[in-house]
Amino acid sequence: MAITILFSFLFLICILSYGSGTITAKRPKITIEEATVDDLQLAFKLKTLTSRQLVLFYLDQIRKLNKNLGGVIEVNPDALSQADIADKQRCECNHTLPKLHGIPVLLKDNIATKDKLNTTAGSFALFRSIVPRDAGVVSKLRRSGAVILGKASLTEWCHFRSFRAPNGWSARGSQGMNPYNSSVEVCGSSSGPAISVAANMVSVTLGTETDGSIICPASFNSVVGIKPTVGLTSRAGVIPISPRQDTVGPICRTVADAVNVLDTIVGIDSNDKATSEASKYIPVGGYGQFLRHNGLKGKRLGIVNKFFDSIKDDTFLSQTFVHHFTTLRKQGAVLVENLQISNIQDVLDSDTSGEFDTMLAEFKIALNGYLSDLVKSPVKSLSEVIEFNKNHSKVEKIIEFGQDVLELAEKTNGMGPKEQDALSNLKRLSKCGFEKLMTDHSLDALVAYASGASTVLAIGGFPGIVVPAGYHNTEKYPFGICFGGLKGSEPKLIEIAYAFEQATKIRTKPPVDWSLS
To answer: Which of 64, 99, 108, 364 is catalytic?
Structure first.
């Protein structure tokens, strides 16, 4: 187990000076890289590491790596003072502290913080805007004693600006790069959180998903992502796309770390009414109890052929997943194979399903509501965002990407008959498709390659967890395996994902030394 213990501030200065992240003394050689939350908490307990030292290490990692990776859009000038407070509390406390106490966290730059950090969705249109309060999930992080290290980059407006804008790109953050291979897709929109935690620029991160925005970047950057049931985590204070589909979830290096974050951020928030209904799914005792090595035993897992169509002609990937299926069986799972979702083509076609039409209307309504609630902002409506972009496109050197999606959204006029019909169709597609499949075959979860099932999970507000599943042997890119289930099935999904992770232990840190790039 990689565990970091920094023995003194003098040694820390040596680390920061020489950039090694490791030291050799009378104790074994150890490293902060890949350290888990439990590792770090143990080091805090043994008084071989302080939160201040940990924050300094990550700030140095960001200084060395971020200029090439673009995972972090802004660092928090108050991070060290927050770390000092955590260190003082730890010294004075005589009881067990929360799991994230003193742990640095990066937030996707659409999650509001009432502090010196900006919240912009990667757009200069919201630069120096002032939010009225912390996002609901941020309030919970602060109460746990976590250190807000900064904001992670993203695909601008959560990839709702333009069809032509590449994944991982924003006006403020430029282009994010995959830490495993610069020529490989980084995916989005939560690209920055995935890049940053994969490259060891932070301990844990928070992303958001509307359709694939946690599952896809987690898969492409060899990390763990949890897309919670919609409403399980508060969206209050999060720059919205679709309140019907938006959810906030962790992106971390291990399932256990992601579960520690999930336990911290779930729960009722009076500013997000969906959390009251979803709170019924939160288990007594939290989610950590489901981190079980035997979690696959007896689980019925559905293998839907469509979710593996993209790899059927790739011998390496096909053989890899045959091996993974064997592992799942050896761990006690029952695989129900060769399944079909009868209406899958209609679900995956966002024009036919109505998903895109409803999202356009929902985005305009929700964004205008968010902007009107700001204390101060250069823009107060979607139409003003569009006008701002027109006036600044040459300065930002982004005229080639345009803003066609924003303009389509601006043309909508509320949730009219067209949108209501689309909503009804989405409910029908979900009920007669994925939900029927799960019920008819008594499945605990479905299994998919990478983000293949993201839309199926998105339109019904269902949860999913992606875990590293390998690295392509010739094209050298990471890929993940996704486990998805019905609303509130996080306990089962955690058992399944954790047991798979522990049985395979696939993740390795990025091989490229980006500090030398």
So the answer is: 108
Q: Reply yes or no on whether the pLDDT at 483 is more than 50.
A: yes
Report whether 199 contacts 193 (CB < 8 A). no
Residue 330 a catalytic site member: no
* 62 part of a folded domain: no
Q: Is 213 a catalytic residue?
A: yes
Which of 305 and 399 is assigned the larger pLDDT?
A: 305
For 436, the domain range is 300-343+430-504
Count structural domains, the chain. Answer: 1
With respect to residue 323, please indicate whether it lies within any of the assigned structural domains: yes
Per-residue pLDDT tens digits for 25-43: 334 344 789 999 999 999 9
Domain of 480: which CATH number?
Answer: 3.40.190
Residue 509 clears pLDDT 50, i.e. is over it: yes
For residue 230, being part of any structural domain is answered with no
pLDDT at 17 over 70: no
Is 472 within a domain? yes
CA angle 263, 267, 269 (to 5 degrees): 140
Catalytic residue among 153, 162, 213, 234: 213
105: nearest Cα among 60, 154, 72: 72
Is 219 an annotated catalytic residue?
no
3-state secondary structure of 251: strand
Among residues 189, 190, 353, 377, the one annotated as catalytic is 189
- Identify the band that residue 96 occupies on the pLDDT scale cut at 50, 70 and 90: very high
Q: For the chain, how are helix, strand and coil distributed in percent, rounded to 5? A: 45, 15, 40
Going by pLDDT thresholds of 50, 70 and 90, the confidence category of residue 397 is low
